[in-house]
Amino acid sequence: xxxxxxxxxxxxxxxxxxxxxxxxxxxxxxxxxxxxxxxxxxxxxxxxxxxxxxxxxxxxxxxxxxxxxxxxxxxxxxxxxxxxxxxxxxxxxxxxxxxxxxxxxxxxxxxxxxxxxxxxxxxxxxxxxxxxxxxxxxxxxxxxxxxxxxxxxxxxxxxxxxxxxxxxxxxxxxxxxxxxxxxxxxxxxxxxxxxxxxxxxxxxxxxxxxxxxxxxxxxxxxxxxxxxxxxxxxxxxxxxxxxxxxxxxxxxxxxxxxxxxxxxxxxxxxxxxxxxxxxxxxxxxxxxxxxxxxxxxxxxxxxxxxxxxxxxxxxxxxxxxxxxxxxxxxxxxxxxxxxxxxxxxxxxxxxxxxxxxxxxxxxxxxxxxxxxxxxxxxxxxxxxxxxxxxxxxxxxxxxxx
Length: 401
Known about the structure:
The structure is a single chain. The longest helix is centred in the middle third of the chain and has 33 residues, at about 130-165. The chain has three domains: about 5-40 and about 80-130 and about 220-320, Rossmann fold, CATH 3.40.50.300; about 145-210, Orthogonal Bundle (Helicase, Ruva Protein, domain 3), CATH 1.10.8; about 325-400, Roll (Ubiquitin-like (UB roll)), CATH 3.10.20.30. Strand 8 and strand 9 form a beta hairpin. The chain has helices spanning about 15-25, 50-55, 95-100, 130-165, 170-175, 185-195, 205-220, 235, 240-245, 255-265, 290-305, 310-320, 355-365, 365-370, and strands at about 5-10, 40-50, 65, 70-80, 105-110, 220-225, 250, 270, 280, 325-330, 350, 370-375, 380-385, 395-400. It has 14 helices and 14 strands.
């Protein structure tokens, strides 16, 4: 499975608008809770330097885009049902929400920075709700979800460890693998919390809760998108600094503005690309008064105030948070082509410390199963299965498949 970023939050904070703006998809947008019932999936793109300029070739991207030497690499986004308090107990669409998030590698938490929606996602008037409460409650829901699963399995795991000398981290990893939690995550948590691995049955409920909290932080790192930033008062905008002091990455966003600019750019009315701090009007005569006013509002209250709509920045920061590299597989290391003659066709996000064989499996299971060796297109040297890949590598996989 590829890298996946979950778009999360309570109902009615602009999650679907953010998703649409980030993926150019068309999830339903409406101003009432539970609009999103089935998870919407889409593709977001992250800009990275394309090797085409270095190799002095004109690339023909297949799974990605290249714009003036910048390769926009795909990463999957999933927009899930709105989360309400006690979702881990099944309240609202809680079970659906949590199931949809199982394999997310990172989360972008959409928070209504204007304080205009209550804990259940109902409109309550701008400034009448503290957005910081949403950060606490979402973390609590995922922590308690993890904790519920760990507690259900802990007695049997502890008994096996103590009677059969089994390793607690590997046994727990088996139970939690469906949540995207690895044995490495568990080992780090056990070491950090100094848990008794010799006598796990002595672990208290509080220690198990701390373990759950630690596993949430490491397996589902979270970025805060402070959405509706254009209508948030200064007092609420300042709350972003409170979160930053606690170590959070917080990005002011206006998903509605990004969607409006993207739509205007598609129609050729303006020149704009995601992440820009301004736009250029191309067809002023075709803009009606309402459109002109909207563009003026966005320029003044979003772009000039915050530097961008924040949507692309959220995507870029989420990828940084995951510490990913980009690798370009080819079938001919001399011409940098695939079997169809496309030059530098594909770009894949890989976890840092991934090796050549990991890339083979990423491209196709058969390539991984029948891996012989790999070749670095820059040096034309043979590299082995365990060779660690670097960001921007162009690699040919040789197999007997």
